[in-house]
Amino acid sequence: MKRISTRFALMMAAAAVLPLLAFGALSIFSVRDGAEQAIVNGNLNVARRTAAQIESDIANSVKILKALAADLQHTGLDQWQQDRILKNFALEFPDFGELTLLDEVGTTIATSRLGRATIGIPDSDGVEIGGVLMTRFSVDDDLLPTAVAAVHLSDTTNGGWLVGRLSLEEMWRMVDSIRVGDGGRALVVTADGQLLAHGDPASKSRVARRDTMERHQLVADINAQQGDDRSANAQYVDEVRGEVAGVAAYAPLLGWTVIVEQPVEEAFAIPTELQGQLQIFIAVALMAMLGVGYFWGRSFINPILRLTRSTGALAAGRLDERVTVTSSDELGQLGNAFNEMAGRLEELQEDIKKKERQAMFGRISLGLVHDLSVPMQNIGNTSKLMMKMWDDLEYREVFKRTVERELAQIRRLLDDLRNLAKPVPLEKVPLDANRALADLAESMKTTAETGGIELDTELVFGPAYFEGDLFAFNRVCRNLIINALQATPPRGRVAVRTLRQTDNVIIEVADTGCGIPPERLGSIFDDFATTKRRGLGLGLAVSKRMVEQLGGTIAVSSQVNVGTTFTLTFPLTKARPTQLQAV
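RE: above sequence
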């Protein structure tokens, strides 16, 4: 059973602590999710701006190339003039590493290079951006990303192509300059999964190796989406940088993907720190609430605990226990009521003890008067006759037997009283139950015949030895047989029998008397309990003590108007009396 203090603590936890914990957990997760989402959105904005900047730079380069093509189509310049214009443009716009004018079949007409031209008409599998055909980006001899852009000169007399080698060195510098925290870097992946630029110096070799990133988680997520406003974010393990939090933005003009990666530990350092601070705050608030609840609860529970302890003491019989009352509320009223009840119980107990003592003394007095009056009267009567018949030898013998018999009755009464107050130590020796009971029954045959009662013995075959004291054993069995004879009407029967049961010897004294009512069987072995109209009621109480001193047990079964059976049980012993061992 749970204590009320435990239940009260659980109630306090359910009423206050649990909602606080639930709110704290919700706050922690909400704040962490919000902070993480803010960080993801911030990194995604960086990726989107980077994608927009790259698209803007390439779009400007395309516009420059188209403007140059327009100048060359309508001016009617000589070859040397065209050659000069291309060289001036190449010097003015360093994003173009080379500008070359070709005819329809790819023959060089003019070039910005001092030597031979190194670029020709691009293949048709390139990407068209604003009317300009652009080839797939590759890495040049300086390990820089480059591509060839071409504009068809359809308005000239012979037609032709203006081609330019577009260098993305500025894009590299821009990607290298992007920093998100201390470890956040950007990278650019083309539409076909080619790694074009990487801001981490340790990963630039991957660009030189022309690593493909088609299976990259963010690239796959971008390619699986539709529309121009594509984005993705995830946490994954990079082969060089370890566990990172990445975001990706789509550049629709080029079909490229710009990725911003940041180590997870750094990216979410603020949410983690904020979460730790919230946890500390909630823990402190929780401990403070528990502390306040504990002290306030103790002030509420302590009176109840004092009442509980005092009630236990009262139940244990300490009626002088009182409760200290320090409040005037309902608990204080309950404490006052308890003190009044305890005082009243103490008075009642003293009154009951007084009445019990009076009743006990009355019973003892009546029992002594009854048990002593008959022997004393017999002795007195025989003494009076002795005064008249002192010279009659036969009467002297009768007088002697009468006095001895009555004095023996008085001694038994006094022995019962002494044994009740202080049991006499018994000396145990091996006893044969059959022999002892046979001798005892033989000595009581005359008493039974005088009352018209049949006294039989039913003894088990062979000796039945147990450890016992002969005087005490005879005293117990004699008392049981006398009680049986007194309870049995004339022509009735009293049987004394022995049995063996496993390792025990069983002794039964059964009668066909009036029996004992069921409601009195439970107290029949108590002190001063008797079924007779007179007497102290010590015989069975003393018998029970003696049986227990001998290491045995005594039990009774009875049925009204049928009879009563007393059963003694003693452990069998293999020991034998000294005389038998000597033989």
